[in-house]
Amino acid sequence: MIIQKSANPRISNFDLENFSFGNTFIDHMFICEYEDGKWGEPKIMPYGPIGFSPAMMGVNYGQACFEGMKAYKDENDDVFLFRPEKNFSRINKSTSRLAMPEIPKDIFMEGLKTLIDLDRDWIPKGEGMSLYIRPVIFATEEVLKARISNKYMFAIVATPAKSYYAEPVSVKISDHYSRAANGGVGFAKAAGNYAASFYPTKLANEEGFEQVIWTDDIAHEYFEESGTMNVFVRINDTIYTPKTSDKILDGVTRDSFIKLAEKRGIEVVIGDVRVKDVVEAFDNGTLKEVWGVGTAVVTSVFKSLGYQDRLLTLPVLSDEESFALSLKKDLTDIQTNKAEDPFGWRFKVERKILEKA
Amino acid sequence: MIIQKSANPRISNFDLENFSFGNTFIDHMFICEYEDGKWGEPKIMPYGPIGFSPAMMGVNYGQACFEGMKAYKDENDDVFLFRPEKNFSRINKSTSRLAMPEIPKDIFMEGLKTLIDLDRDWIPKGEGMSLYIRPVIFATEEVLKARISNKYMFAIVATPAKSYYAEPVSVKISDHYSRAANGGVGFAKAAGNYAASFYPTKLANEEGFEQVIWTDDIAHEYFEESGTMNVFVRINDTIYTPKTSDKILDGVTRDSFIKLAEKRGIEVVIGDVRVKDVVEAFDNGTLKEVWGVGTAVVTSVFKSLGYQDRLLTLPVLSDEESFALSLKKDLTDIQTNKAEDPFGWRFKVERKILEKA
Ligand SMILES: Cc1ncc(COP(=O)(O)O)c(C=O)c1O
Ligand SMILES: Cc1ncc(COP(=O)(O)O)c(C=O)c1O
Hints:
The structure is a homodimer of 357-residue chains. Chain A has 357 residues and is an alpha+beta fold. Chain A is 23% helix and 29% strand.
């Protein structure tokens, strides 16, 4: 791997207590290019622009997908990733569906570990703090033909993160728009899925909702996901979540919540979650909680659900009563090395880059 | 508009008789950037790379859409666009669905006319020849948040084109994959739609088919489109084509074929095209032709349809017997100024750029 260190690191000007999420980038990025059927030399270099023309296939035909993961710093300044192998295997489920080349495991994992190790000073510490890491692969060939590209760039960029969406939010159960088709790409972290969700989300925002609960495109009878998160419903003391399919992203947080709930002895039912059943549970007082889960926010608690012309206001639970918040704590304690890790989910990023390498 | 002419035009080295479509770009490109809620100064500049980091929202979240249109040169070297207003209005249907800013008409049309005028020498002349023009808009903000971008680039690039897909092709009627969801973005020329189609197309290719006839994602009972084209079916002497919807792109060629067919007195039925009815027509000998239409190839004639475990081999018609080929000729004669233009579809690109401007 080529490591080209930044001549002008910005870290000394970076205020770990006060920064804006998402557009403050760590000093370096990792890139590796694919051409002529093979991957080239992986490289770490200063974060910054690369030359692409507007004919780049990635923006014309959307052959692009990504991952979202986090690094956490504990009290002793040790740095941990969370289940990175899950993101590795998922990005290749995405590339496969988008007819892009498979990313080799060593390129993904070595790139990730080396980049995070090198820029470990950028990782903020403390409650809810982390480094948000974005592996992304996109087609770079410059050709105006709607066909599979022959050139790609795999990159990893990262931005310091605070948890956001802390307040419970109001969500709209979609009765017109959808995010995925049967036989489509909903299960992939395909770039185009996100753009497709922005306009329906904007419309929901205008109606006073923060997010959309996506439902099936056939008759809007079943929950699929919420915003860019997987969704959980608690009726009495049982948790329900849709089973994964070609329309639903197989979330790492979802999987972790299921395992943590089972560990707590909470009953989890994985299967169809019918809108009608959720509304009925609301009406008979058994609907306790509905929430979304994902790497970015861990848990987004819903305070109300908009359904057709109704607004279903959910009960307010204490942190202890709430399954959503109890499981969130279980998870973040493991992520940040505050608790035992019975599942072997934490992945320590070793210090290998010497100060003056 | 700023016009920055290329200091090293490549046109003198360009062989109009022998070039590869899609990756030979004309000397210039048009760009206009959007920021802070408004469009900046439009600019024509040499075709080439622009700096973007891998955090560019266009590749991360797929906020990107495009148009495809052509310029034709007639015997007298006059240059014509074909129904450019259709592409203008369609790109804004796409931007609207993808929560992108509307492109103002003067930016689109002036950019287009000035670029084509300036690089008119790049347009090849003769049967099937044209300049393929790609207006494209994509999100350029560098932020790792799945939300609407605040910055965009609208660009126009172009490549000389020969007609391709000349031979009749074999297509597979999809019984598993789909390209669009109800309430989704199928009607938009959204970048992500194309990437999503590559893998199912590759699988079809491996089975010996050149393209996929997309069917509805619910039960694969209805024709939607074929490859990146709209689809027509002829049973006896009546033409059928699916009605446009939120799943079907409203093609300029489709609309032109409908009008030209009506002008010829051919009956056109716009509505549901059921797979079952097509197969039944094949079985009773009334299925005459099935073909795709689009700007790139005008008409792609299908020689056979793969349906489940059957291969339906279509009759071979002469050019005169074929509605597909008769209508193609009607259309290309108008496009290339070989015939009257009763519909007012041709749009002449005036010579305005002086040699040494
Ligand atoms: C559409 C969608 N669903 C669900 C999730 C949650 O997945 P994860 O828990 O792996 O972050 C994400 C990503 O964050 C997503 O983009
Ligand atoms: C999905 C799709 N359908 C149909 C068409 C045909 O549209 P048009 O005739 O405007 O080129 C296109 C574009 O060429 C397309 O991308």
